[in-house]
Write a structure and sequence with these properties.
Elements: E1 9-11, E2 14-16, H1 41-45
Antiparallel strand pairs: 1-2
């Protein structure tokens, strides 16, 4: 896989690339955001149950070297 990098700017929720950069429609791209200090609330909040009593539904028995 070859990699080409461009520097762009976010404007109105869209990535604006420099003039003259043309990418084909439906091209898969990867976005890297350097120095992003904005907290990601969803990622930092973690998994939470609406009702903590439901935690028993997620219990699992793990057995090493035994057939269950």
């Amino acid at each position: 896989m070859s990699v080409t990098t461009f520097e762009g700017v976010i404007e109105n929720g869209q990535i604006r690339l420099p003039a003259g950069v043309v990418l084909p429609e439906r091209k898969i791209v990867y976005i890297i955001v350097p120095g992003n200090d904005t907290p990601l609330e969803r990622a930092q909040a973690g998994f939470r149950l609406a009702n903590p009593a439901d935690s028993a539904k997620f219990e699992m028995k793990v057995a090493w070297g035994e057939e269950l």
